[in-house]
């Protein structure tokens, strides 16, 4: 507690810190920041808000493959690689099984013996946790949380991680939907250009739509270019002033 000009100022409490960090993630997410920036903001929140966390990573399930999309450091990334290779660990279990896994001391009867051996032999990490991330009711990923101190990840850590998880899910979901929207816009733009190119080919070669589409595909194959790229070239040529 501090005094300034007769006023009493309370130090920021844990709830204030939560609000501040979550506000920062929200600002990044909805300001159109890059995917990497959003992911790193989530990991920064994990190391700042969850007691005992020294390293963190974000793993996603994509087409039946586990992919690390962000990590705080080389330690977290190396453990993720081992977890993926061995097909066992808190992050994989959090995605596929229960929403939260916690192992305060990997040296004492760990549920992931092969991963634990790797972690204990190759890294300073001694405790682990995995927290599921859900987007549109789909289990798409998890936060991996690692502590260098045995027993430092505890019930309080688990409680804070469970508070962080839904907000992390919202941030990842917003970013996911933004990427989907960008892909959709690009697809619509490409389709419009393809339609224009087919119309130009029909007029120039005096053929029907089926033949014009065949010409476009054949040209695409011969040039080893995407159909949309060839279509764009045709439209650009038609629109050129010479």
Automatic annotation (TrEMBL):
Domain ANTAR: 174-235
Coiled-coil ranges (or none): none
Domain of life: Bacteria
SUPFAM superfamilies per record: CheY-like, GAF domain-like
Keywords: Kinase, Transcription, Transcription regulation, Transferase
InterPro entries named in the record: ANTAR (IPR005561), CheY-like_superfamily (IPR011006), GAF (IPR003018), GAF-like_dom_sf (IPR029016), GAF_ANTAR (IPR012074), WH-like_DNA-bd_sf (IPR036388)
Protein name: GAF and ANTAR domain-containing protein
